Amino acid sequence: MTTVHTTNFLERKAAILHRKDDNIRRLERQLDLLGMESNVIWPEFDLGASPADVVFYDGDNGYDGIFPWPKGFPPVPLIALISTEAPGRLEWILSQETSAHMVKPIQSSGVYSTLVIAFSNFERRTVLQDQLRALETRVTQRPAVFRALLMIMEQAEVRDDEAFAMLRSAAMNKRQSIENFCTHFDEQTARMLCAKTAPDKKGMQ
Fold first, then answer.
1. Cα–Cα distance between 178 and 145 in angstroms, integer?
2. Does 188 map to a domain?
3. Which domain holds residue 166?
4. Cα separation of 109 and 117, whole Å?
5. Exposed/middle/buried for residue 191 (C-beta within 10 Å: 0-12, 13-18, 19+)
6. Is the pTM value of this prediction over 0.85?
7. Which of 64, 61, 65, 96 is nearest to 81 (CA)?
8. Is residue 43 part of a domain?
């Protein structure tokens, strides 16, 4: 079960990438009631020049290149303002990794719940992306672990499970993951590790 954390948006900044109209004026009023600062921009948008914690944008008229970041990698939650259900348009909106949407015409309520959903979805996606990157890094480092195991098995003349135990202990002593520890593992490191464990092995015989 997912836990939803309600959020205080006081003093948060919202960029509104949309032409000024009655919908946007209603949105600005709702954001103001929540204690948020809003800035209406169209069509050029520079996140550096207009810092924002969330971006509302015109989902009906958005286009590739409208955002100053790589497609699908927004640094803040995106909320699409839409009035069309054309499949091609919805596909484009989803391709931007939009966190939530509001249907136009904008009503006098619903902004708060949309913000909560947007921030929650954005946080969840960020966590998943970080976990995926960590897994990808571990996979790319696996060959280094295999090489280190072979070095230890050869020099210490031990089985693979014993070599892995030695490797794990050494990594823990360095307060590193096994994968990171093995990244710079070489013959000299293997000799030093085997030399340290040699007395223990003799004592056990």
1. 7
2. yes
3. 136-204
4. 14
5. middle
6. no
7. 61
8. yes
Domain count, the chain: 2
In 65-110, which residue ranges form alpha helices assigned H by DSSP?
Answer: 87-95
What is the Cα 142 distance to its own chain's centre?
Answer: 23
Distance from chain centroid for Cα 71: 14
Percent of the chain with pLDDT over 70: 93
Question: Domain holding 141: CATH number?
Answer: 1.10.10
Q: Are residues 105 and 19 in the same domain?
A: yes
Q: Three-class SS of residue 104?
A: coil
* Mean per-residue pLDDT of the chain: 88
Gap between the Cα atoms of 28 and 38, Å rounded: 7
Residue 16 identity = I
Handedness of CA 42, 43, 48, 53 (dihedral sign): positive
Other residues' Cβ atoms within 10 Å of the Cβ of residue 119: 22
The whole-angstrom separation of Cα 193 and Cα 195 is 5
pLDDT 10s digits, 85-111:
999 999 999 999 999 999 999 998 899
What's the CATH code of the domain at 75?
3.40.50.2300
pLDDT for position 3: 54
Instruction: Tell whether 4 is covered by a domain.
Output: no
The CA-based angle 71-80-87, given to 5 degrees, is 80
Is residue 94 in some structural domain?
Answer: yes
Task: Read off the pLDDT of residues 114-129 as tens digits, 9 standing for 90 and up.
Answer: 999 999 999 999 998 8
